[in-house]
Amino acid sequence: MSQHQFTPLADLGDFIERSPEEMAARARDFLEEAKRRHTIREFAPDPVPQGVIEDCIAAAGRAPSGANHQPWHFVLIGDPATKKALREAAEAEERAFYAGKAGEEWLDALAPLGTDDHKPYLETAPWLIAVFAQRRGGADVGEDRKNYYINESVGIAVGFLLLALHHAGLATLTHTPNPMSFLNEKLGRPPTEKPYILIVAGKPADGALVPHHALKKKALKDILTVV
Ligand code: IYR
């Protein structure tokens, strides 16, 4: 017998049995909800309650992770001065990126999105969420063990977060300034944490645009093989 304990899933009462009809309807509803999510780059300055974002981050924190070490840390930024400082630091990196550091092939791939080195949304949107991947940690707070599959784990958590924010009625943008180490500096996170992504969350500005390139979604038959 293992000295580690287990609880029957049924005792948790968390798994809800669904009929095939109910499953089909729920899967279809979720698909329709996912289809309504679009990345935008023009945000309204309208405030959004902090508690809404916190619940979405709590949902992200329920993602599965390597050895259940939950190797993530989220910094929620609403303070205008910090947003301004992040914008300035991100734009400095982006200027070099768009001036040629990215290389021709990358810039060519981005052209249909119309992105450039101006990132006003980093100041306009009510909330920024900086996500960090912890190289060390453990299932308990304060542990200092090696973490596993940090990129996969944090990627899954970010997926949860983006859908939670969308479900709550917010628009999002995943921003990945390159390099991102300024996030550690400006937000006081230790060097053992890898800056993973900066998420912009808020209401879309009136007239916010979606590039046609982003509406090109591969059909199920093109992304799925059933064996
Ligand atoms: N970080 C840059 C460039 C950028 C890169 C990819 I890949 C994108 O899908 C979008 C942008 C920027 O934020 O502009």
Description of the molecule:
The protein has helices at 9-12, 20-35, 50-60, 80-101, 104-110, 121-124, 150-168, 182-187, 212-215, 220-223; strands at 72-77, 127-134, 136-137, 145-146, 171-175, 193-202. Strands 1-2-6-5 form a four-stranded antiparallel β-sheet. A two-stranded antiparallel sheet has the order 3-4. By secondary structure, the protein is of the alpha+beta class. Helices cover 43% and strands 15% of the residues. Helix 3 runs antiparallel to helix 7. The protein has ten helices and six strands; from the N terminus they run αααβαααβββαβαβαα. It is globular and about 55 Å long. The longest helix is centred in the middle third of the chain and has 22 residues, at 80-101. The chain has a single domain (39-223), classed as NADH Oxidase (3-Layer(aba) Sandwich), CATH 3.40.109.10. The two termini are 37 Å apart. The model has no long low-confidence stretch (mean pLDDT 97). A hairpin with a 7-residue loop joins strand 3 (136-137) and strand 4 (145-146). The structure holds 3-iodo-tyrosine (IYR).
